[in-house]
Design a protein that fits this description.
mainly alpha; Four Helix Bundle (Hemerythrin (Met), subunit A)
Length: 128
């Protein structure tokens, strides 16, 4: 019990001290984690667990979409990506499709990788 509390406290501190860029990275990590759980649940025919975790991914994608600053042109590109991912997640949930979830997972990994590169470049330039 004490170990769980210490871990929870560590995670809470990690979130509370993270920069906006790091929080976004954490959201991508969470989406990937829940997508992996959903894929596993579909493979095991655990419909409820698959549904629950697909919804978690969709909620993260929706949050990321709602927090876009549309004054930047790149936000429009992210908007289109998030709309596409949301549509594919809905399809995956209806069909409980491992193939669609794997596609979404690949996109999430690509977006996360790009985001991490942007963070690194900005850190090197002293912008983070």
């Amino acid at each position: 019990m004490a170990m769980q509390n210490a871990y929870a406290q560590y995670n809470n501190n990690k979130v509370m001290t993270a920069s906006p860029a790091e929080l976004t990275l954490m959201l991508y990590d969470g989406a990937i984690k829940f997508c992996n759980i959903a894929i596993d649940a579909v493979e095991r025919k655990d419909i409820q667990k698959a549904h629950t975790n697909i919804i978690k991914v969709a909620n993260i994608v929706d949050y990321l979409r709602k927090t876009l600053d549309m004054k930047y042109k790149v936000a429009q590109d992210f908007e289109r990506m998030y709309v596409y991912l949301d549509r594919r997640l809905t399809e995956a949930n209806v069909k409980k499709s491992k193939v669609i979830l794997e596609e979404v997972n690949e996109h999430l990994h690509a977006i996360r990788s790009t985001w991490k590169d942007v963070m690194r470049i900005n850190r090197e330039k002293g912008l983070l």
